[in-house]
Amino acid sequence: MAKTSSIEKNNKRAKLAKQYAEKRAALKATVKDQGVSIEERFQATLKLAELPRNSAKVRVRNRCEVSGRPRGYYRKLKMSRIALRQLGNLGQIPGLVKSSW
């Protein structure tokens, strides 16, 4: 099990990223638009820099929903390889067949 503080910190980042997603997208579109004047694009860049750093989607770490483990993460299942193995051994994952010989 991962530290509770690191899990909560990551949850906070995910919440902030969701909250500021529209604002960030609008500012980034303004910055990339070549039809807008240089001054307006620069102002959009400054406003983008004023937003909280943790509101960037890049700062959110994929973590296992069972254990909170940050590494060995399967996106499709939203869990780590270790949690997948444990639940697979218990037969709690539909469609997963553990082979043994």
List its traits:
101 residues; mainly alpha; two-stranded antiparallel sheet
Helix/sheet category = mainly alpha
Q: Quick one: overall form?
A: elongated
**N-to-C CA distance:** 30 Å
- Count every helix, treating DSSP H or I runs of 4 or more residues as helices: 4
Low-confidence stretches: none
Which secondary structure elements does this structure contain, and how are they paired or packed?
Layout: H1 4-19, H2 21-32, H3 38-50, E1 73-74, E2 79-80, H4 81-90
Antiparallel strand pairs: 1-2
Helix pairs in contact: 2-3
Walkthrough of the structure:
By secondary structure, this protein is mostly helical. The protein has four helices and two strands, in the order αααββα. The chain has a two-stranded antiparallel sheet with strand order 1-2. Helix 2 packs antiparallel against helix 3.
Short description:
This protein is mainly alpha-helical.
